[in-house]
UniProtKB/TrEMBL annotation:
Signal sequence interval, chain numbering: none
Superkingdom field: Bacteria
Protein name from the UniProt record: Fe-S cluster assembly ATPase SufC
Family as reported in the entry's similarity comment: Belongs to the ABC transporter superfamily. Ycf16 family.
Organism this protein belongs to: Microbacterium sediminicola
Domain ABC transporter: 4-249
Gene3D superfamilies found in the cross-reference section: P-loop containing nucleotide triphosphate hydrolases (3.40.50.300)
The keyword ATP-binding is annotated on this UniProt entry: yes
Record-linked SUPFAM superfamilies: P-loop containing nucleoside triphosphate hydrolases
Listed CDD domains: ABC_FeS_Assembly
Amino acid sequence: MSVLEIRDLHVTVETEAGETPILNGMTLTIKTGQTHAIMGPNGSGKSTLAYTIAGHPKYTVTSGSITLDGEDVLEMSVDERARAGLFLAMQYPVEIPGVTVTNFLRTAKSAIDGEAPSLRAWTKDVKQAMSNLRMDPKFAQRNVNEGFSGGEKKRHEILQLELLQPKIAVLDETDSGLDVDALKIVSEGVNRAKEATDLGVLLITHYTRILRYIRPDHVHVVVGGRIVEEGGPELADRLEDEGYDRYLAPADGAV
Ligand code: ADP
Ligand code: MG
Ligand code: MG
């Protein structure tokens, strides 16, 4: 079992106005085999949490910690985080000219495992994973992210997840821009990875829609850069009915 522990995390981002605090004491523990949903209104700091776990240079941790099985994640380079077993979907959002999907995936797999997978087995695995996600085999020969549609980007993300077999995956707005059919296919991919490898998932989303297909065991509501409420799947159901208004417009006399 692996554990990702986020403790009292404070994060600032550099803006024209200087260093602006975005996360104000975020505490969260994710174990392999668990699915946690982070939900909240726009601008509450959800993506900032994902970028901070990913090691994006724009985000500065001013206090608090992130550890994976006791190892200091904040001291790790982006590559080291991947090798340690963290999957951060937004890690490679850029176009990589001249690098095909299949070569990119094999390079990533080799970097994580410390050795290249046998070409034969690898080709078979990629084919299988692509067929699971109902992707056109031609997709493997496209250049990474070059002209990918929103839906193709998301499927490529889940293809990586299935093939790289991380311990903990952070998925930020994986549901955005997907129609219902694509959402189901992508969700099935995440659920397959959960079953096959006991993956831990940190599923970040504004909307409850994806949670019908990927059921979280824990739901955390983030407002103003900190968790304001936690519960089980029933909390997601309540948010679907009520939205975030109750967190944003407290009644008179409330804190
Ligand atoms: P969410 O994902 O919950 O919508 P974000 O983490 O993207 O929220 O943003 C939280 C707040 O931090 C917003 O006010 C946003 O404008 C600000 N912010 C986040 N990243 C940056 C950035 N790179 N530059 C400037 N402001 C940022
Ligand atoms: Mg946003
Ligand atoms: Mg966001």
